[in-house]
């Protein structure tokens, strides 16, 4: 083998070594194999759960939702641009009056536990997370689901619905304790009982950052 041939083989080997990570990374991303879960999401990403629009829930509208003043996630009174009276809602989606924002929301949703103390503690946990979002709080909603009746006092900004909490379509999946839902009703991430508010906050902030609010169009005056 000549010196020129050896140099060419070395060059080909070097190019192959440098380009190898690209197809490998694409294969890992496509098959979702070998990716550290924490870097994608802190729960089950895109679980096999039917969208929120198919949950067949009866949404409860509180008394002050019929007024022009509603409470936001921090418990402060804010002017609402939507009056719940006479508003036609998309079937299966939370009422506009409960969204508290002009833009569509992401949603944190969970089934209410049967124990009153546990239910109240869980509702307060996600309320505190919601408050911690600061100026981004209007882009997130909280939806708690009870099968027949609620056992904990309603927390400010909490949307309630009666109905059966839908189980995952995949029978082998771990039961979900919390779900993060996008504005179109698709379940983006599902969490098990071990999830912490800090981990959920990271996923919520990541989604809000990757889905910025579209700039408002100002009409002619």
Helices, strands, pairings?
Elements: H1 3-19, H2 21-31, H3 37-40, E1 44-45, E2 58-60, E3 69-71, E4 77-79, H4 96-99, E5 106-111, H5 116-132, E6 140-146, E7 158-162, E8 178-181, E9 187-191, H6 197-210
Parallel strand pairs: 5-6, 6-7
Antiparallel strand pairs: 1-9, 2-7, 3-4, 5-8, 8-9
Notes on the protein architecture:
The protein has 221 residues and is α+β, with helices and mostly antiparallel strands. The chain has six helices and nine strands. It has helices at residues 3-19, 21-31, 37-40, 96-99, 116-132, 197-210, and strands at 44-45, 58-60, 69-71, 77-79, 106-111, 140-146, 158-162, 178-181, 187-191. The chain has a seven-stranded mixed beta sheet with strand order 1-9-8-5-6-7-2, with helices on one face. The protein has a two-stranded antiparallel ribbon with strand order 3-4. The longest helix has 17 residues, at 3-19. The termini are far apart.
List keywords for this structure.
alpha+beta; two-stranded antiparallel sheet; 6 helices
Explain briefly what this protein structure is.
With 221 residues, the chain is an alpha+beta fold. The chain has helices at 3-19, 21-31, 37-40, 96-99, 116-132, 197-210, and strands spanning 44-45, 58-60, 69-71, 77-79, 106-111, 140-146, 158-162, 178-181, 187-191. It is elongated and about 85 Å long.
If you average the pLDDT, what whole number results? 76
Strand content: 15-25%
Radius of gyration: 23 Å
Overall body shape: elongated
Name the strands of the widest sheet in spatial order.
1-9-8-5-6-7-2
Helical percent range?
Answer: 25-40%
């Amino acid at each position: 083998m000549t010196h020129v041939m050896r140099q060419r083989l070395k060059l080909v080997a070097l190019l192959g070594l440098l380009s190898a990570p690209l197809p490998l990374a694409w294969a890992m991303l496509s098959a979702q194999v070998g990716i550290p879960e924490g870097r994608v999401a802190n729960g089950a990403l895109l679980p096999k759960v039917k969208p929120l629009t198919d949950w067949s829930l009866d949404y409860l509208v509180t008394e002050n939702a019929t007024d022009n003043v509603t409470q936001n996630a921090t418990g402060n009174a804010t002017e609402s641009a939507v009056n719940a009276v006479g508003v036609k809602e998309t079937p299966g989606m939370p009422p506009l009056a409960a969204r508290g924002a002009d833009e569509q929301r992401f949603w944190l949703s969970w089934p209410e536990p049967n124990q009153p103390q546990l239910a109240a503690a869980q509702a307060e946990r996600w309320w505190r997370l919601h408050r911690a979002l600061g100026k981004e709080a209007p882009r997130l909603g909280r939806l708690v689901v009870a099968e027949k009746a609620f056992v904990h006092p309603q927390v400010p900004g909490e949307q309630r619905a009666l109905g059966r909490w839908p189980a995952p379509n995949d029978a082998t999946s771990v039961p979900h304790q919390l779900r993060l839902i996008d504005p179109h009703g698709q379940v983006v991430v599902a969490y098990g009982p071990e999830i912490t508010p800090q981990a959920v906050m990271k996923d919520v902030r990541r989604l809000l950052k990757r889905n910025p609010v579209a700039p408002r169009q100002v009409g002619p005056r």
